[in-house]
Amino acid sequence: MADQTDQICNQLLQPFETIPSKARELSTLIKADLLCKLPVAGGEEVKFPILKDFIYTSEEVRRSTIAMHINYVLSDPIGDAVIGTGSEDMMHSSVDALIRYLLQIFVKALGGKLPIEFDRNRADPKSTTKGRDRPDFLCWTREVLLFKGEENGDAKDFDLAVEELQSKFNICFYAIDGSPDAGNQLDRLIPLTDLLKIDHRRDRVTILHTMINITRIMLTVSTKIPNNIIPLGKRRKTGETTITFFDDFVEKKIPRNHLPYANDDTRIHFLVRMYKCAKGYPGLVQIKNEPTLKNRGSYKVLMTTWGLNILPKNEGELKAMSKSIITGLDRLHRGNFVHRNMFLSISNTEVIMEKIWLNAVDNMLMSVEGNDFVTKLKAKKLNASKALQRAWIKGL
Prior knowledge:
With 396 residues, the chain is an alpha+beta fold. It contains 14 helices and 10 strands. The chain has a 5-stranded antiparallel beta sheet, with no helix packed on it. The chain has a 3-stranded antiparallel beta sheet with strand order 3-4-5, with no helix packed on it. It has a two-stranded parallel ribbon with strand order 1-2. Strand 7 and strand 8 form a beta hairpin. The longest helix is centred in the first third of the chain and has 23 residues.
């Protein structure tokens, strides 16, 4: 018989009509009844009567991929694998079966309808930087981190896992100048289910139920996500540079031979001086700690985040942005740092700075001072120091 997985998944995974505006309201959708029972392969609804309201066996679907997978999820080995392990590594097969492999089946069955990506740690990384900063499981849709998970090998450490999950990848808010807005930081998690135990077969069905409804939520919101998204947790390659986005910093790694200068100590000394010059000044990259050469092979620096790179909405915001950028630029000029290609022989400096989008903001300028300021900038009649003395931004 033909595999019925695609048809079953399309029946199970219909988008919700609406999405609540508050996280606590999501629990209603998470607990919503499934659109149909879950198929299994070998009459488990008879073997386990407690599950008969949630699963069914039929000759047409029992050889389908999803039926055989759910059969495996409900089997004794999945539950037994987590009893008395005390280790995250020993739990991977059970957790993957309930979450990662199930999502893979959904992605394949729905094709482009479910644009998700996921990543998970393959070992317990408690002693590593990765373990301190990244959750064990990450799932994105259209670059938005929608699902993060933290594993722990012992049930008595559940509260610790919740604490670690809460501390990793919190959503940050920023003021117009890019500085963190501490008053708006999220400080708690909203439980969407009760505590569930993998070694309980009924709880495994609840986990499947929850994953299906989370997938339905992802299907519902995926078409409504804006384009200017920072993909928390993702690693990006730009040439030889690897960039990873965290909640309040960005990790940047560059191979040693792609840094300026030939001598390692000179390279690091130069970059440390540059970042020290920028410290505390708006419009410039700020670092969490000094750059390092890891194992003498790659340069690594952790930079604090400044929010999304978006245009101002009015002249007041444009004025604040302009002063922020020009203040930083003036600081770099005074420190003999300039903005140019660091690999050119005529240059020995590097700086990362925002750009003023002069051509895109003309229609925001209503004041005479603002128009005069931008006109002189376009004509290159103002350097950074003189620009800071203009009446349009001096009073801010």
